[in-house]
Structures are given as C-alpha cells and as structure tokens.
Design a protein that fits this description.
Elements: H1 2-14, E1 24-25, H2 31-34, H3 45-50, E2 58-63, E3 68-75, E4 89-94, H4 113-119, E5 122-127, E6 137-138, H5 153-172, E7 176-181, H6 183-193, E8 201-207, H7 219-238, E9 246-247, H8 252-262, H9 269-277, E10 279-280, H10 285-294, E11 299-300, H11 301-313, H12 324-331, E12 350-355, H13 363-372, E13 381-386, H14 393-396, H15 400-414
The chain binds 2-acetamido-2-deoxy-beta-D-glucopyranose (2 copies).
Pfam families: Abhydro_lipase (PF04083)
Protein name: Lipase
Active site: 182 (nucleophile), 358 (charge relay system), 391 (charge relay system)
Length: 415
C-alpha cells in the first residue's frame, strides 16, 4: 500500500504532467531515493536546506490572532552580493496545499526561486502554513486536539496572511512583494478581493493560479473530490473515518481514502501513475526524490473538503457547512459568502503565470479568472502562458528561471 500511496500522491501533486518527449524522465521506481533521511527531522529548514548552500538564513516565528505559531525562514542576502538587507525589498513566498516552504528550495540554487531571488537582490521570506511540519505550534492547542485542525483556507485569508504580512513589514519597514503557488495564489486573490493586505503589498506574482476550480479535468482529482466528500459524510454518520481532523497524506485515514479512490470504476491508479508521471516536463528526478523526503505535509481535513467543494461547485465561496442552519450560525446567511474576484481593486500590480499542461489550474478556469479581472488596469496585469508547464513545474522545473521567474522578477522591479 505504501507504493500506491506514494504513487497517488505523485499523481495528485503532479496531476496534469502529461507524457511526452520531455527533457528528463522521472524514474518513479527509484525506491532508494525514497528512503527517509533521518537527519532531516532534527533540523529546521534553514539548517537543512539553505545554509548548506552557503546562504545566511534566519528562523522566525509569527503568531496568528487565533493562536497558531507559524515558522518563517528569511534569506536576507545573496551568496556574493555585498549589500545589506536595508537596501533589499522583502519578498514573501507562499506555498500550496500539502507541501511547505521547503518546496521553494528543492533544486540547485541557480534553479530554485528562493535562492534566485536572494541572489537577485531581494530579502526573501518563506512562509509555512499552519499544520505543516515546522508550523504546528499553537498557544493553547496541541496538534493532537481535533480543535487544532478546525480550519480551512478561509483562515489563511483571515489570520495567517495578515499576521505574516504584518510581521515581515514590521521587520523590514517596507512593502512586500508576494509570490504564491497554487493555494498560495487562491488565498492572495481571496484576500485582495476583500481589499486585505493591500496597504502592505507592492505587487504579486501568482504561479499556477487557482481560484475557480470548476473545470479541473484531472480525473483523479475530480474523483478524489467526490470520494472524499462521500467518505466524510459516512464518517459523520458512523465515525468510520478516523484521524479525520488532520489530513495527513502519510496517515492511515488517507490510505483508506486512496484505496477507495483507486477502486472506483474507471480509475486505475497504476495506469494513471504511468500516464501522469511517466514523463514530466522539466523535473529533475533527483529533485523529485528530494521532494519526497520533505513532502507531502499535513493540512486540515476541513481544508481538503473546502477545496473539494470548489471542484464540485465551481464557485469561490467560504467553507460550506453543508446545512442551512450551520451556515447561518457561522455566516448569518444560509449559503457561504462568496469571494468576489471582480472586487479585486484594478490598480494592484498582478503577474499571472499559468501552464498549458496544468490540469489543476485549468486553462478554462484561468479564463474565468481573467474575465473577473477584465477591468484591471492594463499596465498592472501581466499574464504569462507556458505551454509545456504543469502544476509542479512552476516550483520545481529545472528551467523555471528562464521560462518563468525572470519575467516576474523584472515585473517586481517595475512595480
Ligand atoms: C539534478 O539534481 C542533482 C541533485 O541536486 C544535481 O546534481 C544535477 O546537476 C541536477 N541536474 C540538472 C540538469 O540540473
Ligand atoms: C462583484 O464585484 C463587482 C465589482 O465591484 C460588482 O460589480 C459585482 O456586482 C459583484 N458581484 C457580486 C456577486 O457581489
């Protein structure tokens, strides 16, 4: 089962990486590369992933209003440049779901965005969402308490991002550039639509943007969403699904869920494995092995349900309690409030980069997002399209600097 688990995680995370004649083959059978490195657990991200490359790195923590203690890594300078952090502009990197900030550091320094930004004159801050390995602290709850996991990405919008922006601003005295990937784009767009963070923001680059999810064509992702919601309903009635508060991709409950998904008619995980992960655009197989040492990471089951609701519903709303009375109790209305993407102020400098092979950030969903932004100031919205790129390429591709990062960095210098 461990093999199936890894394979399905790869499919979920790399979904949309269609086979083709690509630069490098991903050999998924390199079991040796999947062996955990015991020393990883004993060091923070700075020690294990940044300092080893010769960069200065500081560990910081920020506490949210609802008590979560989040870790942040700061790379205040590049390897060679002699300037000081005072001259540098802070940039905040926000990862997606089921991973943590380590995702920005997996490739060689000249290929990984965090290092490229540090060497490019930025003061780099790496966020780690609540519930991930280095952000599991809380002022009064333990991560063993169900109450610890009572959140979805709504709370990232409400608490985590504001606390992080305020902290970085307080430390640097400057407005912040933002780079989000996947869920990291969703929470930024949702915040901007409510006019949050704007007083502390310079501009934002959104890689593989996720807002509308109604078109996700990836069969496994859709099926996972369906089975997932069904499983959770069963759990509510029979308490069948244990460990349900924490969605731990390495845990038993998720294992059970994956079995259910893989048994569905029309879904053959072994075939999908081959077809989705056989050959990826531009991933280094060593990086993928490295990825599996650090990721995947936990999130709240409630967050996975929220994302699944978006795949099924096709709209961007707050978490749906699935019952009128409960929604009224939480929101004062029978349906969850909508995040209105047309409400994003038209003068925020936004850089969007999306991929033609990305089945989680689907081209049709991107069109829906761009339609919401149709009145955005022309000189404040740049859209980049990478035909060959899929979801993970935006953070892990070997050639991402040339293909993607150089132009949002130029955009940051302009805005
Ligand atoms: C792939 O990653 C390994 C390990 O970091 C590195 O030695 C190798 O140079 C990388 N290959 C390319 C083409 O970047
Ligand atoms: C969304 O915002 C736009 C622009 O502010 C407004 O015209 C539109 O009515 C809003 N839509 C909803 C559903 O609130």
């Amino acid at each position: 089962m461990a093999t199936v688990l890894r394979l399905v995680l790869l499919v979920i995370i790399f979904c949309g990486s269609a086979p083709g004649a690509r630069t490098q083959e991903l050999d998924v059978n390199q079991e040796a590369g999947l062996a955990p490195l015991p020393q990883v657990a004993n060091y923070g991200i700075c020690k294990s992933m940044v300092e080893i490359h010769g960069y200065v790195c500081q560990e910081h923590t920020v506490t949210t209003e609802d008590g979560y203690i989040l870790s942040l890594q700061r790379i205040p300078a590049g390897r060679s440049s002699g300037d000081t952090p005072q001259e540098r502009r802070p940039v905040l990197l926000q990862h997606g779901v089921l991973v943590d900030g380590a995702i920005w550091l997996l490739n060689l320094p000249h290929q990984s965005l965090a290092f490229i930004l540090a060497d490019g004159g930025f003061d780099v801050w790496i966020a780690n969402s609540r519930g991930t390995k280095w952000s599991r602290g809380h002022t009064s709850l333990s991560s063993d308490d169900p109450a610890y996991w009572d959140w979805s990405w709504d709370q990232f919008v409400e608490y985590d991002l504001p606390a992080t922006f305020q902290y970085v601003h307080h430390q640097t005295g400057k407005k912040i550039y933002y780079v989000g990937h996947s869920q990291g784009t969703l929470i930024a767009l949702a915040s901007f639509s409510q006019e949050k963070l704007l007083n502390l923001l310079k501009s934002a680059a959104l890689l593989s943007p996720i807002a509308y999810l109604g078109q996700v064509p990836c069969p496994l992702a859709r099926s996972a969403a369906e089975v997932f919601i069904a499983e959770v309903n069963i759990q509510i009635i029979t308490n069948f699904w244990l460990g349900v508060d924490e969605f731990d991709p390495k845990g038993k409950a998720v294992d059970k869920l994956l079995k259910a998904i893989c048994n569905k008619p029309g879904i053959n995980c072994y075939n999908l494995f081959t077809s989705f992960t056989g050959k990826n655009c531009c991933l280094n197989s060593s990086t993928v092995d490295f990825f599996l040492e650090y990721e995947p990471q936990s999130t709240a089951t409630k967050n996975m349900i929220h994302l699944a609701q978006m795949i099924r519903g096709g709209s961007i709303t707050m978490y749906d309690y699935g019952d009128k009375d409960k929604n009224v109790k939480h929101y004062g209305q029978p349906t969850p409030p909508v995040y209105n993407m047309s409400g994003i102020p038209s003068d925020i400098p936004l850089y969007l980069s999306y991929g033609g092979k990305d089945k989680l950030s689907d081209v049709n969903d991107i069109q829906a997002l761009l339609y919401s932004l149709k009145d955005h100031d022309r000189d404040k919205l740049v859209v980049q399209y990478q035909e060959d790129y899929a979801h993970a390429d935006f953070v892990m591709a070997m050639n991402a600097k040339q293909m993607v990062y150089d132009s949002p960095m130029a955009f940051f210098r302009l805005h």
